[in-house]
Amino acid sequence: MASKTAPKTESRRPHVKCEQCSLRDSPVFRPFSPSEFEWVREHKSGELAVAAGSTILLEDTNSPHLFTIYQGWAFRHTALPDGSRQILNYALPGDLLGLQTAMFDKMEHSVDALTDVLLCVFEREQIWKLFNTTPELAFDVTWLAARQERIMDAKLLTVGQRNAKSRVAYIMLHLHARTKRLGLGDEKSCEWPITQEHLADTTGLSKPYLNEVIRALAEEKLARVSDKKLTILDRDGLVELAQYDVARDEMLRPFL
Amino acid sequence: MASKTAPKTESRRPHVKCEQCSLRDSPVFRPFSPSEFEWVREHKSGELAVAAGSTILLEDTNSPHLFTIYQGWAFRHTALPDGSRQILNYALPGDLLGLQTAMFDKMEHSVDALTDVLLCVFEREQIWKLFNTTPELAFDVTWLAARQERIMDAKLLTVGQRNAKSRVAYIMLHLHARTKRLGLGDEKSCEWPITQEHLADTTGLSKPYLNEVIRALAEEKLARVSDKKLTILDRDGLVELAQYDVARDEMLRPFL
DNA sequence: CGACTTGTTGATGTACATCAAGGTACGTGG
DNA sequence: CCACGTACCTTGATGTACATCAACAAGTCG
Q: Average model confidence (pLDDT) for chain B?
């Protein structure tokens, strides 16, 4: 529940040159050309620090900003009128937030900070200019949108066709792969700021039953969550249970 | 089941000038400028007729083509290794097929023709040129990708949080709204080429139970399917059952 | 220290899947 | 015209995977 609507946020001037952005060192992202650096440097309008639990973007509103995650975890979610919440996906460093506000009149989902988050801020009008002045970056935005659609396809497949244990196993493998590639985890483990309640709203399972599933995975020595960390105990077993297609989560990303 | 892998398709030269494309008259699409018409006319490489039940694009392959639906229904779907199939979404006239092949090395879903379908064909390399030469159209492609993501968000919410009756009601309302706006139906009804098996794979329900749900909706005089037609009997009742947000399916579309 | 958030446990019910037939309407070839 | 297959829908019996509700630890955090 309850993202506080009064986020403890803090705005500030850029403190790091984009050329020296630590994310750039990651092998996940493609190299930037000088003109691309120039565009980003020129148009980045600031940084925003958001505390864990706060709302970054609110459903049915239209933020003038577009964000890129520099540090931390966030998640997109939406709800039915009766209150049941669905978590749509988790966003990690390098992910783009708020494309919908740039394309449509309003968002149909909220975005909350899961951990403390540091965001790079852009003005949403600039996305128009992007298409006119820097087609490579415009292409990257489209690439990110297509990739996001692909992730959503996979989630729908998961929730529609996998059973409870398989669903949880799949999400563990998926997020482990993504964090690992960003250098936020190793072969066997990664950080895990996701509570059981989040996971229940992600998988469409109830909280008590999800708890049972998680304990079962631990008992069967497949994976264990403790102390905000996920440990993969038996990767092959987990992959088989989840019917996980390893190749699907491997993609070179073009854009910061 | 079983899309025949040897589709009865027929390739042919364009028979209609894009300027006179009947879809252009639809109030759903924004008007094109002369330069946009020129781009489309120059780059459209042909038309393709595909028979109902045939495969248009195959998972794990990489088609050199990008399609736009001129006439008919198609659907995107993917499957788990164990065989369970998930239908991701239905594609209607004006929808773009195969963006993934243009952005990535291969597709992670197949596309099948649900009815006989008429496609406009583009070469996938041209999408690069689009970003360099016609930024308005490039923006439209991104717009379509963002809209598709939005639709996938809504489906995930549906399958994750709605119960069986509510799921089916939601899909009926969603597809009725989309077809109606394209002029393929009226206030109370629309064409419905979707079998119960398709619907089961869309909702994640079993075929027999889905059948029960559909009969219940008919008995309660909410909606009825017969003879490849959907009839909405009690729209308000259906909207309430589905927790359907009318505004979400209303969007002006930019691109053919 | 109490208040709150997160995880654990158990009792009970139901919404759904699975399996197994059978039924109807259509086509196709003899 | 009949025999046959095939595609789609219908029906019922049985089981189980899950939800719901309720209460209670256990660990933050002010």
A: 88
